[in-house]
Amino acid sequence: MEKDKHWYAKKRPDELAAVMRNLERYLAMLNASKSAKCVQAGYLHSEPMGVLAIDQKGFGPNLRETRLYTYAVDETKTVHLITIGDKDEQHSDIEFCKEYVGFITTPPATTDGRTQKEK
Amino acid sequence: MNAEPKNKSQARPSGRKYDTVDDFVASEGVPREIRDRVSLLKNQTKITLQLALLRQNGGLTQEEMAAHLNVTQSAISKLEAGTDDQLRLAEIAHYAKATGERICLGFGKPLNHMEAVKLHAVSIKRHLEALAKLANQQEELGIEIKAFFGEAFFNMLDILSACADKLPSGPDFDVTVEISNRQCPRGITETATKKETVAA
User: Fold this and answer.
1) Contact call for B2 and A13, based on CB within 8 A
2) Angle value at C-alpha B157, between B153 and B161, nearest 5 degrees
3) Is A96–B49 a contact, with Cβ atoms under 8 angstroms apart?
4) Does any CB of chain A come closer than 8 Å to the CB of residue B46?
5) Is the residue at A111 inside a domain?
6) ipTM of this predicted structure
7) Long-range contacts of A87-93 (CB under 8 A, 24+ apart)
8) Alpha-carbon span B68 to B76, nearest angstrom
9) Architecture field, domain B45-99
10) Which of A42, B3, B48, B192 has its CA 20 to 30 A from that of B103?
11) Which residues of chain A are within 8 Å of residue B33 when distances are taken between CB atoms?
């Protein structure tokens, strides 16, 4: 998210601020719920593999469509901030998220290269 | 929260973790203007966030809340994701009614801490007087109210004492609170004298 975050801060500050505020709102609702699946808000979009995209909605019609991709782990109460992008990058961003979630949800490989699951 | 660097060839966690969004933006080099803008948006969405939390804590979906307000689900979604200046009082009232929760609307100048304590003290007095009146009217309830008075009395002293302990110590002046039989509210049987020293 490093390069994108700086690009957004420079080129789309209002969009970045809106997404950050919606992230705060999402976290407040998440903290008050049993599971990430229970949170319902207009600025949240479900994506494949449990990824949730937070958009810029709620702060005026002039903001460009922006999405911050997140993944919540209920057990550890952790929200992973995966990447941020606009509509044009949506497809590649989702592919990136899938790879990311695949990595963090796959059990570590054992010495023979197989995962515990495969054994 | 776990902040992740975007690298198309390697989608891996960075290992950096933050407790709050404030910590995240402060530590990740997000410019001050953006942080100020987030604070501004925060102030503009305090009530809508509370309404969304009220609905969620009340176990209601946006569809169910929409049925209570006789509007569409998307209207609820827009309301909760919007800013406070778009809200109508009727909508706030409907949220309170649908969730069975209390929503207070306050008027007046902002209070400092001392004024707030005084205001609460006046409110506590009013409620205690109402309870005392009730105790005189209903004998059975009176026993419970007397017990409650005793509990409240010691709890308030406890709070005062605990907060006073956090004050800087100094020789300026000490306040000694001495509780004797005579000063205890009626119905309190703990007659031992208790001393609390409140340093101010």
Assistant:
1) no
2) 170
3) no
4) no
5) no
6) 0.79
7) A92/B8, A93/A67, A93/A69
8) 11
9) Orthogonal Bundle (1.10)
10) A42
11) 13
Position B185 scores a pLDDT of 52
Query: What's phi and psi for A61, nearest 5 deg?
Result: -85, -10
Q: Is residue A48 part of a domain?
A: yes
Is residue A114 in some structural domain? no
Summarised one tens digit per residue, pLDDT across range A9-47 is 778 888 999 999 999 999 999 999 887 888 999 999 999
Q: Are B58 and A35 in contact (CB under 8 A)?
A: no
- Residue A56: closest CA among chain B residues belongs to which residue? B81
Instruction: Report pTM.
Output: 0.70
Confidence category of residue B197, pLDDT binned at 50, 70, 90: very low
**Residue at A12 is within a domain:** yes
Provide CB contacts within 8 A for B119, sequence distance 6+: B111
When divided into structural domains, chain A yields a total of 1
Task: Report the alpha-carbon distance of residue B125 to residue B109 in Å, rounded.
Answer: 22
Q: Does B111 touch chain A (CB under 8 A)?
A: no
Mutate to test the interface with B, among A12, A15, A20 (most CBs of B within 10 A): A20
Out of A1, A17, A29, the one facing B37 most closely (by C-beta) is A17
Q: Pull the structure tokens for residue B112.
A: 């400092």
Q: Which residue in the set A39, A42, A78 is minimally distant from B2, CB to CB?
A: A78
Q: Can you tell me whether residue B29 is helix, strand or coil?
A: coil
Tell me how far apart the alpha carbons of residues B192 and B43 are, in angstroms, rounded to a whole number: 51
Domain that holds residue A19: 2-105
Task: Indicate where chain B has its CATH 1.10.260.40 domain(s).
Answer: 45-99
Q: How far is CA B130 from CA B123, B145, B187, in A?
A: 11, 11, 17
Say which of A24, A43, A81 has its CB closest to residue B3: A81
Q: If pLDDT is split at 50, 70 and 90, which confidence band does B176 have?
A: low
Residue-wise burial string across A61-87, b where 16 or more C-beta atoms lie within 10 A, e elsewhere: eebeebbbbbbbeeeeeebbbbbbbbe
Q: Do A16 and B34 touch (CB under 8 A)?
A: yes
